[in-house]
Amino acid sequence: MSFCKKINSAYHVCMKLTLDNPILLKDSGIPGKTVAIFAGVHGNEKAGVHALEQLADKLDIKRGKLYLVLANPEAIKANVREVNINLNRLFLKGNTGAEPEDVIARNLMSILDQCDALLDLHASNSKNTKPFIIFNKFSEDISRLMNFEIISGGWSNFHQGSSDEYMETLGKCALCLECGSVFESEKNVPLAIQSIKQFLQYFDLIDRSVEYNSEPQVRLNIFKVGIKETNEFKFSKHYDDFEMLKEGEIFATDGNKKYVAGSNEYIIFPRENKPIGGEVFVLAK
Ligand SMILES: [Zn+2]
């Protein structure tokens, strides 16, 4: 007898989570919340992928239902952020796109529509970074319970089509965890595992097994996303994630345009090497 239930042409719900069977539904059979945990929406961000692979067999769900999802298996196999286009801008109602990532986004939205909450595990492509949380309108409380030094909001205004923004449009809680640098994925697996347990115990799917965070956190609000306008875009120097900018400094130029820092501003995801129209930095305060 097969345990697999076909839910559409591309995905199956199976008893074992693998890159060939990337969606695992754990159903306790007892009433409770339905939640999803995604990893590998960006295929090279491996901390969450390894955490899910390690936990999938062990998690004992006491109440409710849990979807574990290796979101972009082809990108994970190839260890690339995306095969064709950025999956994390495609969670849009009415998405009719034809790229493989559009098909994945539609499949995953059909899962999110059944869920009360989402935990989406990512990592930063910067070498020097810090683990941080992106919360949406409904998840700031939970982000305070996790062991991340930095929590940040306001992203939904700039990142339409991200998984957390999609959940926000449904009035639901979602967290995107940036689990450190992609250059040290193994080091950040324990943080990802701890966060998964905190998330599941918050929603009462598992019995309490880990403590919640008790350390103070820095709360940042995203207020600007820089978009590349010309091929002359460049930063004035190398910036790391969360580097504080000096008030009045010109931190980047783009053709004739100068970007000048205000007071108490931090730069996140500085990336010169993007096509025109691409996101070259995020500012927070
Ligand atoms: Zn990512």
How would you characterize the overall build of this protein?
The model is unreliable at about 1-10 (pLDDT under 50). The chain contains six helices and 16 strands. The protein has two domains: about 5-200, Aminopeptidase, CATH 3.40.630; about 220-285, OB fold (Dihydrolipoamide Acetyltransferase, E2P) (Beta Barrel), CATH 2.40.50.630. The radius of gyration is 19 Å and the shape is globular. The N and C termini lie far apart (about 55 Å). About 20% of the residues lie in helices and about 30% in strands. The chain is an alpha/beta fold and about 280 residues long. Helix 1 (about 45-55) packs across helix 6. The structure holds zinc ion (ZN). Zinc ion binds near residues 41, 42, 45 and 122.
What's this, in brief?
It contains six helices and 16 strands. The radius of gyration is 19 Å and the shape is globular.
How confident overall, as mean pLDDT?
A: 93
Task: State the major sheet.
Answer: 13 strands, mixed
Corresponding CATH architecture of the largest domain: 3-Layer(aba) Sandwich
Q: How many domain modules? A: 2
Structural category: alpha/beta
The helix-strand sequence is: EEEEHEHHEEHEHEHEEEEEEE
Q: How many strands?
A: 16
